[in-house]
Amino acid sequence: MNKYIAMMIAATLSSTAYAAPETYVLDPSHTLPRFEYSHFGYSIQLSRFDKTSGTITLDRAKKTGSVDVTIDAKSVNTGSTLFNGHIQEADFFDTEMYPTITYKSTKLKFEGDKVVAVEGNLTIKDISKPVTLTVVSFLCMPHPMMKKDACGATATAKVKRSDFNMGKHAPYVGDEVMLTIPVESIKQ
């Protein structure tokens, strides 16, 4: 009987440990949000941000969690030093006044053990709008090089520049922007 009780206590403790929320810190060298838009209909232009920080918290047993991402708007990288400066001006990101872009989740949606969507608020130029990110890939496993647990995902959403007071040159330069946020994160 004592052996049975000891096994039950051990099983309870191990399931409690699994149920605890886990926090992951974004790996800035593998978390490079990007955006793309139509340029006069000639082409789809692609740019990214080179500095991102944040955390992801997951409680897979309860199917809950949170995402908190901060993007350094001054790290925008269009591939052109001249255009990097132009896109940071007041008509676009206005990085002198608003140096960061944030995304804070309000709800994670799961299918089985995988996150498939993140509902939250995107804030650009101090304007917050609800944005649902569709998670197109999601994987948690031990990182083969860092020897720590890690999670990664790629999420997408479409937003309108004009919703964030950045609509200059629309509709010639597309108002609709596709956001793609690839993230890799390491468990704390």
Task: Please provide a written account of the structure.
With 188 residues, this protein is mostly beta strands. It has one domain (21-187): Beta Barrel (Lipocalin). 13% of the residues lie in helices and 53% in strands. An eight-stranded antiparallel barrel has the order 1-4-5-7-8-9-10-11. A hairpin with a 4-residue loop joins strand 4 (52-59) and strand 5. The longest helix has 18 residues, at 2-19. Mean pLDDT is 92; it is low at 4-17.
In angstroms, what separates the terminal alpha carbons?
A: 39 Å
Fourth CATH level, the homologous superfamily: Lipid/polyisoprenoid-binding, YceI-like
Q: Which descriptor suits the 3D outline?
A: elongated
Task: Decide which structural class fits the backbone.
Answer: mainly beta
User: How would a crystallographer describe the biggest sheet?
Assistant: 8 strands, antiparallel, barrel
CATH class: Mainly Beta
- Biggest β-sheet: strands ordered side by side in the sheet: 1-4-5-7-8-9-10-11
What is the succession of H and E elements? Answer: HEEEEEEHEEEEE
The percentage helix is 10-25%
**Rounded to an integer, what's the Rg over CA atoms?**
20 Å
CATH structural architecture:
Beta Barrel
Low-pLDDT stretches: 4-17
Strand content: over 45%
Total strand segments? 11
Number of domains: 1
User: Would you tell me which CATH topology applies?
Assistant: Lipocalin
Determine the number of helices (DSSP H or I, runs of at least 4 residues). Answer: 2
- Average pLDDT, rounded to a whole number, is 92
